[in-house]
Design a protein that fits this description.
The chain is an alpha+beta fold. The chain has helices at about 20-90, 100-130, 145-160, 180-200, 230, 255-265; strands at about 140-145, 165-170, 175-180, 205-210, 215-220, 270-275, 280-289. The strands form two sheets. The protein has a five-stranded mixed β-sheet with strand order 2-4-5-7-6. A two-stranded antiparallel ribbon has the order 1-3.
């Protein structure tokens, strides 16, 4: 009942077509309309099939991600939980006080360290779950860039002290930009902690902020092993395990840079790395403003 086209017949002679011709033309048009409709249905079915296949592929990917997350949680949480249980069992054992306050303090510090690692892992797993569910919400507020980066340097300098690593913030132009403070802190914390994690003891990590056209470019430069060519394609993907290893035996989930990329992109920015193997790496990201 819906027009899909027309057939046009003409003749230079008047009264060429009789009713019998009209009936033939109508039968031809009817057959052609059926062919057109069948073609439309076949095309529609092909489109629906392609969409179903795309959805199935996405479901398989999400299922693999879920299994990977559960496997990581089971694997990476088992060791610290076991260590905390073993250490706490020792502390509550009769006679453990005979080892003195120094031993007790060391065990308590170890328990605290393991607990922090578990909290970090759980936070990253929750972030990935939230991102995959499309629930990553950015709530921008005005941020004093110099104050924000100075606070990051102060916090990470304490954690970098055991490796005798120095974190230096180069002069930051006076500026205020719009960003989600907790999420931006995640980005800075991840990049700076990675720079400390993969740099040798006694090295220097540089933090910069530069104005470029209509955006700010914030970068973190380390003195680590650099990024090998085979690692570049996997660098900002989930569960990326790179050839470089932390220099102080620190742990890594392979989720931090993937989460960082999603947060930067949600702000409307870009993220990347400049590096040569053996010459350190400079991770950078941009923010509109």
């Amino acid at each position: 009942g819906v027009p899909v086209g027309f057939m046009f017949f003409s003749s230079t002679q008047p009264n060429t077509y009789a009713q019998v011709h009209v009936s033939s033309f109508q039968r031809i048009a009817g057959q052609l309309s059926v062919i057109v409709e069948k073609g439309r249905l076949v095309s529609e079915l092909a489109t629906q099939k392609a969409e179903i296949e795309r959805q199935n592929a996405e479901l398989r990917r999400l299922n693999e991600l879920k299994n990977a997350l559960l496997g990581m949680a089971a694997h990476d949480l088992r060791n610290p939980i076991g260590y905390i249980q073993m250490t706490s069992d020792f502390l509550i054992e009769p006679g453990s006080e005979d080892f003195g306050p120094e031993i007790h303090q060391r065990f308590l510090q170890d328990i605290n360290h393991q607990a922090r690692h578990m909290v970090q892992l759980l936070n990253e797993l929750l972030d990935v779950t939230q991102i995959e569910a499309g629930k990553l919400v950015i709530d921008p507020h005005p941020i004093d860039l110099n104050e924000f980066l100075s606070d990051a340097v102060r916090r990470h300098s304490v954690m970098a002290a055991p490796k005798n690593t120095t974190i230096v913030l180069e002069d930051v132009p006076a500026a205020r930009l719009m960003a989600d403070p907790p999420r931006l802190r995640q980005v800075i914390d991840n990049l700076v902690s990675n720079a400390v994690k993969y740099s040798p003891s006694g090295s220097t990590v540089l933090l910069r902020a530069e104005r470029q056209d209509s955006a700010w470019r914030i970068s973190v430069q380390d003195e680590g092993p650099g990024i090998k060519p085979q690692d570049r394609d996997r660098l900002f993907k989930e569960f990326a395990k790179l050839s470089a290893r932390p220099t102080g035996g620190e742990s890594s989930t392979g989720l931090g840079l993937a989460i960082t990329r999603r947060i930067v992109e949600a702000h409307g920015g870009q993220i990347g790395v400049d590096s040569e193997p053996g010459k350190g790496a400079t991770f950078w990201f941009t923010l509109p403003g």
